Amino acid sequence: MPKKILVVDDDELVLIAIQELLTPLGFSVTTSPSGFDALERMANDRFDLVILDIIMPEMDGFEVCEKLRKIEAYTETPVIILTAKSGEEDRQRGMEAGANLYLPKPISPKRLIALVEEAIK
Questions:
Q1: What is d(CA 115, CA 40) in angstroms, rounded to the nearest whole number?
Q2: DSSP type of residue 2
Q3: Angle formed by the axes of helices 61-69 and 35-44, to 10°?
Q4: Centroid of chain to Cα 20
């Protein structure tokens, strides 16, 4: 059974790029354009990894991460924050919200693949 990844980003091109990158490697990739949509998907399905943007309308990635950590099924699920917000203060806030990794955009495809494979083991 393929490992299931939820990618949350309001930029459709980012969603497509990550899906196109990871699907051929055997991952089942679901995309979500917002925090509200992502939380709804998590309530109805089980994912092995969440890749999360910070800068999104209505609910930012910090809030999404905090909320998903309160869902019993997601307390231990790896969360990778992938964002353009690369300041140390933002990184610290992301880790405090419950992220396992905080990565600045842009990221090389090879590095992202390696980090996803490592996180999902």
A1: 26
A2: P
A3: 20
A4: 15
Q: Closest Cα to residue 34, out of 48, 13, 55, 16?
A: 55
In the chain, % of residues over pLDDT 70: 100
pTM of the complete model? 0.97
Residue 88: its pLDDT value, please? 95
Burial of 12 (0-12, 13-18, 19+ CB in 10 A): exposed
* Four-CA torsion 115, 84, 40, 76, nearest 10 degrees: 40
Token pair, residue 100, equals: 């396992």
- How deeply is 3 buried, as exposed, middle or buried, from its count of CB atoms within 10 A (0-12, 13-18, 19+)? middle
